[in-house]
Amino acid sequence: MNSQPPRFDELVGIDLDAAERDRLMRVHMLLVEAGPPPELEERAPVVELRPRRSRRFAFALAAGLATAAFAAGALVGNRTAGPNVDFTYSMKGTPAASAASASLAVYDLDGGGNWPMEVTVRGLAPSASGNHYELWLTKDGKLAALCGYFRTDANGSAKVPMNAPYKFTDFDGWVVVEEGSRTPLLTT
After folding, report:
1. Which residue in 177, 188, 99 sits closest to 133, CA to CA?
2. In the prediction, which pLDDT does 41 show?
3. CA-CA distances (angstroms) from residue 49 to 55, 74, 183?
4. Is the dihedral of CA 55, 59, 61, 62 positive or negative?
5. Domain covering 85-187, topology
6. What is the pLDDT of residues 34-66, one digit of tens each?
């Protein structure tokens, strides 16, 4: 340790006005007169309140929690986002079911060449015969390819996932019929 106090000009430089220089000189002289602080050995020992390993543990715990939160967010985020709708169709009731309507959401083609879909039906009373309803693709106005079956609740509603492994360009429309019938109840 150097026993010589630092020179005033080295500390403050030479570009001060006279009043400021005099004030700082008085403070400097008081500090030099007071001398250095007592040696560290004379002070009370410093006690570390937390061992170093607890900091490492806290860091590892924080990193683990951050990773778990990220993974949970990615999982929930992907689940809520759902598939992308490629196109939709509206269906209207025919004279046989004039109060009925439906919408058909067709999602992006999957890796196997299937078109996942969801049909949402409103106002189509449950079948009086107890049969289920069928969603068909049509070609030249005739039933051509079955896409799935569904039933409606007491309010005439249904929301049903379906699938179509067909090329839609081979068909000209969609219809809903009652099982065993060829009479359209809903059509695009």
Report:
1. 177
2. 57
3. 11, 38, 83
4. positive
5. Immunoglobulin-like (2.60.40)
6. 877 766 556 666 666 655 566 777 777 777 777
